[in-house]
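Q: I'm writing a short methods note and want an example of a predicted protein-small molecule complex. Could you take the sequence and the SMILES for flavin-adenine dinucleotide and return the bound structure as tokens? Please keep the output block clean; save any remarks for afterwards.
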Amino acid sequence: MRKIAIIGSGFSSLSAACFLSSKGHEVSVFEKEGVIGGRARKKEINGFTFDMWPTFFCMSDIFDRFFDRFNVKTLDYFNFERLHPSYQIYFSNSNSISLPCSKEQLLNALEENGKGNSKFSDLLINDADVNLQTLYVKGGMFKIIESIKRLAESFGTTFFANSMVEEIVVDQKSAKGIIVNGDYKEFDLILSGIDYQSTESLLNNRYRNYNNQDNYRLSYSALLFYVGFDKKIKNVSHNTIFLDTDFDFHAENIYDLPEWPENPMFYASFPSITDNTIAPQGKETGIFLIPIALGLGDNDAIKNVYFEKIISRMEKMTDQKLRDNIEFFESYYVNNLSSDYFSSKEDAIELANTIAQSSSNKANIKNKKVRNLFYIDGLTIPDLGISSSMISGEIVAEEALKSISK
Ligand SMILES: Cc1cc2nc3c(=O)[nH]c(=O)nc-3n(C[C@H](O)[C@H](O)[C@H](O)COP(=O)(O)OP(=O)(O)OC[C@H]3O[C@@H](n4cnc5c(N)ncnc54)[C@H](O)[C@@H]3O)c2cc1C
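A: Understood, no commentary inside the block.
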């Protein structure tokens, strides 16, 4: 039996905790926030529940396989359902299409609406949802976190919230322990489920693998709004995309210029359409996401401008008055991404999805200079997203177990 520390409590950490503690190891998970779950946090306001980051997932088979490995069933832990449609996409008022549909139908609809040969069509056509599924968990995505935490605890994993890991202590190329809230704790093995660069920053310079972080191209950032509506919203679906503007121009704002987009496309989620447990009766929970460039920062004035933009566009597209039905709205500060998750480049969501950063070009899961330190996060394998994070936890746990048996 080995003493194993896992830093961070996102999906990848929870998955690894299950695999390691089920083999009899003493696993401790340290999370700097007061709640477990990482980016899959929830916000509760006046009877409304909001998933703060992930709002849906794909590939239920990954969860089936995960629970199967522990001889239990996904449905013993949480209930999920496939969304119909996966998305509704607005091109202009009274003109929207619903996915899933065949690739051909989708291409035709995009052509008809002048989006046939665009960055957005490339994105959408390649998106798993056309071929696979868009899934939602009753009660919100946090239910999955609660489930996996429960499973990990059943194997003996201990969770420590409000526990900031400040340093990984290394001696003679071997990690000896971590400093948590000022106290040194000894461990035989350390797995880090926090953003890669953050893990490196916990190490003395000579043990870092990637001193030049600019080698990596990071993805975009996001401006988010959480809105309580005092009525049910018509003409929208659980997942709705407002693509009534020029996305190529918006993409230029994100990747080339970079600057605040004049007329952004935006994603809206109304989970209370599917799930009556997360909004008071007769009301609607709304989550809005605008993709933006990295490093723009934000403030109340900017956020109010963008909130106004999306509400007026939505009123026009969906043919209804909404302004007077907003019970409250809150936003997540873009700037908080860096303080909450220590994302590099201030506010990056994850690593950009490019070939140069895929497969074997990804950051290594094992520190090359410290024999018993492993990395589990979106910069390593396989990718970002909650299903991929679950796989990452499994793969890294397997590698860690192999290192123990050597
Ligand atoms: C806006 C947004 C929307 C998204 N939507 C979706 C979606 O719909 N579907 C989907 O599948 N994926 C989505 N994702 C991606 C998904 O949220 C992530 O891929 C996944 O949650 C990452 O999990 P993780 O295990 O890497 O850890 P994270 O969730 O990043 O958790 C890391 C944890 O480590 C903690 N931590 C950091 N430093 C320390 C330290 N020094 N000591 C202790 N703890 C520390 C942090 O507080 C955090 O809780 C979205 C991401 C974002 C940002």
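A: Remarks, as requested: The first strand starts at residue 3 and ends at 7. Residues 7-13, 30-33, 38-40, 53-57, 164-165, 193-194, 198, 222, 289, 341-342, 349, 377-378, 384-386, 389 surround flavin-adenine dinucleotide (CB under 6 Å).
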